[in-house]
Amino acid sequence: MMTQMRTDHSVPAGTALVGMWLGLASLAMLFLSSMVGYIIIRLTGTTMPALASVSLPWLLWLSTVVVLAGSMTIHLALGAIRLERQAETRKWIWVTLALAVLFCLVQIPGLWQLVDAHFAAKDLESRNHLYGLIFVLILLHALHVLGGVVNLAVVAVKTTRGAYDHENYTGIRLSAMYWHFLDIVWIVMFGTMLALG
After folding, report:
1. What span, in angstroms and rounded, lies between the C-alpha atoms of 154 and 181?
2. How far is CA 118 from CA 23, 68, 79, 111, 182, in A?
3. I want to staple 158 with a disulfide (CB 3.0 to 4.6 A). Which of 10, 96, 151, 163 is the partner?
4. Superfamily assignment of 55-196 in CATH?
């Protein structure tokens, strides 16, 4: 006698949300350990310059404004889709995508300025290696933003095609969670670098 196999492959409700929380928790551990490492190196390194001697590029301030604006616009998109305001949702998703791309574009010359500051000294002994460490941490964050840009592009196209409504907006919700997470990470990173610079 053969037993009938279950062929229902539906995903339980809330699975994507649980997956996102687990993903954000793992990313939080990565960024927190990176920041703890930065603080330890900054405060205990034998060749570290004096506190407040590191100058961060002004473009990093601009990118902070851009990332916070993106957090606001994706929040507006999420609120709009919950109220079934399709046109408003599309507008705010596309604005968020544009801000995410702008963030990456602003970060590139800011990272270049950090590299220039790192190599400003001619000899290795007088070089401020802290600029190199800051470069790596900001690049790590920027790569995660780039991943968010890809996700936002997919969500923007789906939004334009009408894939979301007030009952089905998981893609927008998950994108908003990720973007808010990146905001928090950036503020913590940038604030720590400013405080210990």
Report:
1. 19
2. 33, 28, 44, 11, 26
3. 163
4. Cytochrome c oxidase, subunit III, four-helix bundle (1.20.120.80)
* Closest to 112 in 3D by CA, of 144, 134, 143: 134
Dihedral (Cα; 31, 33, 35, 41), 10-degree rounding: -150
Convert the pLDDT of each residue in 119-158 to its tens digit. 665 555 555 566 677 777 888 888 888 888 999 999 999 9
Q: What is the pTM of this model?
A: 0.82
Q: How many CB atoms lie within 10 A of CB 78?
A: 19
**Segment 5-50, tens digit of pLDDT:** 555 567 677 788 888 899 989 989 988 988 888 888 778 766 666 6
